[in-house]
Amino acid sequence: IHSFLFIFSPSSEKFLVNSLIRIGRIYKKVIYEQFTNGQFNKIKPKEKWMGLLGPVIRAEVGDTIVIHFRNMATREFSVHPHGVRYTKGNEGALYVDNTFGPLKKDEHVQPGESYMYTWDITSEFAPPAGDSACISWVYHSHINTPVDTNSGLIGPLITCKRGTLRTDGSRIDNKKEFILLAKTYDENVSFYSDENQKRCGDPNECKKLAEEEDEEYMDSNLMRTFNGYVYGNGPPFVLNANEEVIWYVMGMGNEAGIHGIQFAGQVMRVHGQVYSTIEAMQASFRSATMKPMNPGRWLISCAVTEHYTDGALAFLDVKPQGTYTENWRFPINNNIKYYYLSIEERFWDYAPSGKNNLTGANLSDDPNTEGAFTSGPHRIGRCYKKASFFQYKDSTFTTKIKTPDNMGLLGPVIRVYEGDKVVVVLKNFATLRPYSFLPHGVTYTKPNEGTVYNDSKIITGKIVEPGKKMTYEFFVPKLSDSDPMCKVFLYQSSVNHVRDLNSGLIGPLLICKRISPFIKPDFLRNHLEYFLLFNTFDENLSWYLDQNIQKFAKDPQGVDVTNEDFVESNKKHGINGLVYANLPGLNMCVGDRVDWYVMSFGNEQDIHSPYFHGHTFQQENFREDTSNLIPAQSWTLQMTTQNPGRWLLECRTTIHFKEGMRAFYNVKICYNAPDLPRKTNIRRYFIAAEELRWDHAPKKRSIVTGNDLNNVDEDGNIYIRHNQYFIGSVYKKALFREYTDEKFDQRVVRDSSDVHLGVMGPIIRAEVGETIEVHFKNKASRPYSMLPHGLYFQNEEDGELYNASNPTAASKVMPNSTFKYTWRVPASSGPGAKDPNCISWHYISAVDPIKDVYSGLIGPIIICRKGILNNNEKRKDVDKEFVFLFWVLDENQSWYFKDNINYYAPGRKKISGDEDFEESNLFHSINGQIYGNNEGLLINVGDKVAWYLMSYGSEKDVHTVHLHGQTFINKAGMRQRSDVITISPSTTRQVEFEATNPGTWFLHCHVNDHIAAGMETVYTILKKRSHLVRSFNPFGNRDY
Q1: DSSP 314
Q2: What's its membrane topology (predicted)?
């Protein structure tokens, strides 16, 4: 990318240079290859840019795909597809599924043997109306998925609507297609890792480092790639200017396999909507269109800090072709907008009050925060030198335009309208460093690009030296009808993408629709907008780190910049650069329409779940109260305020919550008294928090292998290991449980419809317009509470403890005490126009939202449209309902952790610092159970099924939930066919499908680490005796 030899590029040297203790850039892999005939003697060529990917398998509705698979490797493998209909003997996945004999041969094809897989593209597996003509999936080996895929066995599968393809598989419309797989190949988790260690100059030393899990050695084998290439070494993707291309963007990998893919100078469209960043999660598949207007070599990158630095980079070559035109994207108008921006250095205080404004305590007095916010001999404290964007009135740069206080560290809003040409004049007032201006969500020509990289001839990028000024121009795309009225993107400096951002150079770019060529959209008088950047500024990566050490550390010469505690103290988890509710000015009135523009950038930990107490909002046609952000992503959240009070907004991802990514927003009664939701039909629940023993793996077996987890050689043995030093699978917990009445002496026994809930509390159900009354009794030994997501409750009934020194009765229910919560269900708590008939939320105890929930206190809420529930509080429109909580349940953070050690592992003396012990207490669970220990997941063929999917926890709790044997249509927003759905921490999703494919099927999180640790189970679709499965009469076969 930077035209350096590997040995002169420090960021790439550790990955690419072979040495005594490094493998380098060449690894033995196993890949899928296509042959021209059944003799397997001639490989069919594929596009060079496909790299490690297997051949493209294409088919359309009505086709049957026949795969003649020969295993020419040295160990057993299989072929498992996503997105097509298969029978048990054609699934290609190894697990205990009640099949035997011939029906098991598809699961593991031995070396030298062959197997024929047959897959059908039936209507229930087809792209629905409103979806793209073709949608992308993957196929991969599924014996040991993490190891199989890291070894290389992944390929693309594309299914299309009828009439899209020619007989040879090419598109009738001749649209160009590219496939981009974003994956970190973990060569430490490859079948060939032992062989690859022999490439080291000292193989024995590499073997030793691998056995010791040496961090630097292991990291050198993490190849962050596009199609198996790093640092732009893959063949470029080539197309002509004005040529429309379809990108199939896919992700696979581990917990760090979260990618925000950006195409420099280009605008992407997903179902017509404008995007600057395409999300590529583990086993997620997105289709996007692009029509590049400007010739040149353009950078493709992953915006996640580690991925960008460590090589997730590629090139797009756009060749000049025909007459230059902007008509595809831009309306013809003469609107030119000017902005005069400066870059200036300043000292920034992350907590100007010096206090944790949630509690009123001084940050310097808090043992949990003082290391990060108090200057000391080897600590910088809370004030840092940074660089920021500012706005001036004109090109003289004499009159500065004030930015509202609630913008914090953000640069000024660049507000533009679709079709505008925008001119930014940038003056660099910084003292030593060159900087630049780079906008996202818009297009620009190569001479106006603010990113520095090698474009095959020269190092390009328009940069502004200190004391100089430069002009940048860009063009604003037309938003689609399905885009919100205004859509937010980011702008930044990108001379050095990572260090410029962490130095502070970032701001919002807002694109709004134009009602007509002459009228700008005027909103109602009570329309407000706020911009919120959720991110971790890593001051260790700032250009000003050394200056900050010299100015603020009291013993600067003694500072060790590699010290782990020092490094952590310089990571500031804030909203707009402010922590612990120090962000001011988020004020509004009841009845206001508020657009919250939320944004993020950063590293692998910058997975954010912005949660708004007291209100819900619309995001991409989902009804939510918690959003989701990955680096470089941004959303428009549309809220109508109806609930007066002082409310918290916070990132619910545990690390950011703990480190102060929280703020207040204030809703006042300014006009007429608010029309509060009335207390109508009441549904009463009697729920207790009580301490129980919970077994995460009562069957003590693996659903994949069927083997006994007590066997010390089993991967899952660490989670059930029980002796003097390890707790095992049984833990004391606090759980929500339902009782029959206010006496709380008779617990409601779970029946076959809800036994699957496992560790979760009972389902709380209601319809829009009703009131939920929860009589809560705390039968545990410490204070707890109940906090619902998505519902209407008054400020004094907020179940989260804001201030420990001044608790409310609702936020801290003492042991043996009761409290009656009243939650109303207005329309804003129920399904939106495009949602299914019922949507899900969750409730938790929130005295401490981290420790309480890890102790076990979480449960589901289901809210339906009026008339959907019957007298038994079950849905009339579906046959079966299931709630699944995908969750890395961290027993290390439970209130009962020490109790569990004392009771189950009394010999354990060392608690922290023992990685095996800490890992043994991390349960990668579904409803609190691992390795398929769940019960009650039975469905009949023909049943209409509703699944409610939930997640909670840390940045590791992004889950890509994959169900085998079925697909579903994601109805929220655009209708999309899928068999994987992504859920982020503290969010919920719901899918519905008709069960058509009998068998026992795998259900699991597709994140590699989670598969390996047991986040998997099975569900069974039973064939009714009277039901005959329709035979499939294909229009034709496609053989591969």
Answers
A1: E
A2: Single-pass membrane protein
For residues 731 and 945, is the Cβ–Cβ distance under 8 A?
no
- The token pair that represents 316 in the structure block: 């797009």
- Separation between Cα atoms, residue 637 and residue 656, nearest integer Å: 20
Token look-up 């076990």 returns: 856
> What's the CA gap between 794 and 772, in Å, rounded?
13
In this prediction, residue 755 has a pLDDT band, given cuts at 50, 70 and 90, of very high
Residue 408 contacts residue 350 (beta carbons within 8 Å): no
Query: What is the residue-averaged pLDDT of the chain?
Result: 91
pLDDT single digits (tens) 678-692: 667 999 999 999 999
**Beta-sheet strands, E only, within 764-879:** 764-767, 771-778, 787-788, 818-824, 838-844, 858-864
Q: What is the pLDDT of residue 674?
A: 64
**pLDDT over threshold 90, residue 633:** yes
CA dihedral 610→504→473→470, nearest 10 degrees, is: 170
- 349 burial class (0-12, 13-18, 19+ CB within 10 angstroms)? middle
Task: Report residue 976's pLDDT band, with 50, 70 and 90 as the boundaries.
Answer: confident
Is there a contact between 1003 and 925 (Cβ–Cβ < 8 Å)?
no
Q: Is 999 left (phi over 0), alpha (psi -120 to 50) or beta?
A: left
What are the structure tokens assigned to 775, written together?
A: 């009589």
Q: Tokens standing for 184?
A: 């970190």
Q: Cα(936)–Cα(243) distance, rounded to whole angstroms?
A: 52
Helix (H, G, I), strand (E, B) or coil at 232: coil
Q: What's 797's DSSP letter?
A: G
| CB-CB contact of 846 with 787 (8 Å) | yes
Q: Which fold, 31-174?
A: Immunoglobulin-like (2.60.40)
Q: Quick: pLDDT tens for 835-848.
A: 899 999 999 999 99
Which residues make Cβ contacts (< 8 Å) with residue 978, sequence separation at least 6?
83, 285, 967, 968, 969, 970
Q: How far is CA 536 from the centre of its chain?
A: 16
Phi and psi torsions of 365, nearest 5°: -95, -5
Query: 682-935, superfamily in CATH?
Result: Cupredoxins -  blue copper proteins (2.60.40.420)
Concatenating the DSSP letter of every residue in 438-475 gives: EESSSB--GGG--B-EE-SSSEE---B-TT-EEEEEEE
What separation in angstroms does the CA of 632 have from each of 310, 601, 625? 17, 5, 21
Q: What amino acid occupies position 468?
A: K
DSSP letter for 576, please: T
86-107 exposure pattern, b = at least 16 Cβ within 10 A, e = fewer: bbbbbbbbbbbbebeeebeebb
CATH of domain 337-668: 2.60.40.420
What radius of gyration do the chain's Cα atoms show?
A: 28
Sorted by where each begins, the domain ranges of the chain are 31-174, 337-668, 682-935
Of 783, 789, 746, 742, give the one whose Cα is nearest residue 764.
789
DSSP, res 83:
S
Q: Find tokens 């460093």 and name the residue.
A: 433
pTM above 0.90, yes or no: yes
Q: Which residues pair with 865 in a beta bridge?
A: none
The full DSSP string for 394-409 is STT--SEEPPPGGGTT
Look up residue 707 and give its two tokens.
Answer: 């083997």
Distance CA(88)–CA(1002), nearest Å, equals 11
DSSP string, 955-993: TT--EEEEESS--EEE-SSS-EEESEEEE-TT-EEEEEE
Q: Per-residue pLDDT tens for 801-838?
A: 887 778 889 999 999 999 999 999 999 999 988 889 99
Positions of E strands within 496-592: 506-512, 527-538, 571-575, 587-589
Q: Does the structure show a pLDDT above 80 at 253?
A: yes
Phi and psi, residue 144, nearest 5°: -130, 90
DSSP 21-34: TB--S---------
Residue 748's SS3 state is coil
535 forms beta bridges with: 574, 601
Query: Which two tokens mark 341?
Result: 């921006």
